[in-house]
Amino acid sequence: MSVLRKIVTILAFVFPLSVYAQEANELLHLYFSEVRAEKYPAIPKQFTLAENAKSVLGALSVYIQDSLNTVRAKAYTITQLTGNAARQSQVRSRAVDQLIQASKDNDSGNAGLAISYLTTFRKDDFGEASKDTLRNLIKRKSAHFDQLMKLAGFLELKDLQEDIRPYSQKGNVTNIRWAAIVSLARMGDPIASADMMRRVRKLPVGDDLIYKIFPDLIYSRHPDAIAYMVEVLHRQESECNTADAERPAAIPCGYRVMEQLAPVIQGYPLELDESGDVKTKDYEVALQTVREWFIKHKNYTILRDRF
């Protein structure tokens, strides 16, 4: 048993998983000592409990500024887990503030990691200081620029529309141009939204459309985009393939679409498990249930509080 695991076991017995500033400092010191030794232990449960969030986030500041890329990366991971576990809005906002600063990390991989973690928070977790930092990153065209634009779209920073618009035009690399288009569409820009849908409707319905393009339609939250996905959901043709590579079989694309729509439609009749699969024992019945629900609820509400 490692030194860290022994200490965690003792603290869990003495403090029933609740840690305070001193214990948080000690636990983090032990954890990152093992990270420095390239042992990469599992993140202790104490770090990710709501009641410990404030103490842990406060104690993490020194590791977020560490000279080792691996230490900073683990600190970002703990920040994300701790922040999302927090119940208080100010604690969640602090986690976002720490991650938005982390998105300026000189190591590109670490910066990308921090940006990806930011997409797991709610829109109201972002304070004005974090939004201003994002504005500066956009104007400087910082690393992972495509993801930064999408983050700005999610936060509906409409004052950045004219900064982003040039990247939606011809002459830009594909991923940058597409990210600019969907970012502007998320902000409700009519020109970008029309361009997005014109491009999408030209593509054949199949696995590439469902797996590569539809996630960005979900991101856009644009009514026309969601309506097109609902249209594909109702198609009876077997235009997609099962995920089983050893036993491929043609199936309706609606099975995947019903999973993609679940997190963004209010009152949706199905729930997803932690892996993103629909909670059901019968996928055929589940798909029919969703199809009938959309027929009865033509004025559905699209949720916009998440990325």
Q: Can you characterise this structure?
A:
Helix content is 59%, strand content 1%. The protein has 307 residues and is an all-alpha fold. A two-stranded antiparallel ribbon has the order 1-2. A hairpin with an 8-residue loop joins strand 1 and strand 2. Helix 2 (21-36) packs across helix 3, helix 7 runs antiparallel to helix 8 and helix 8 packs parallel to helix 10 (174-186). Residues 10-16 have low confidence and may be disordered. This is HEAT repeat domain-containing protein.
Q: Keyphrases for this structure?
A:
15 helices, 307 residues, globular, 2 strands, two-stranded antiparallel sheet, single chain, mainly alpha
Structural class of the secondary structure composition? mainly alpha
Fraction of residues in H or I helices: 55-70%
Query: Which ranges are low-confidence, i.e. pLDDT below 50, for 5 or more consecutive residues?
Result: 10-16
Major beta sheet summary: 2 strands, antiparallel
* C-alpha-based Rg, rounded: 22 Å
Number of helix segments? 15
* Main sheet: strand order: 1-2
Q: Give the rounded overall mean pLDDT.
A: 93
Question: Quick summary of this structure?
Answer:
This protein is mostly helical and 307 residues long.
Write the layout of secondary structure elements.
Elements lengths: L2 H12 L6 H16 L16 H12 L4 H17 L3 H14 L5 H11 L9 H12 L5 H10 L6 H4 L9 H13 L3 H12 L5 H14 L2 H11 L6 E2 L8 E2 L2 H8 L21 H14 L11
Antiparallel strand pairs: 1-2
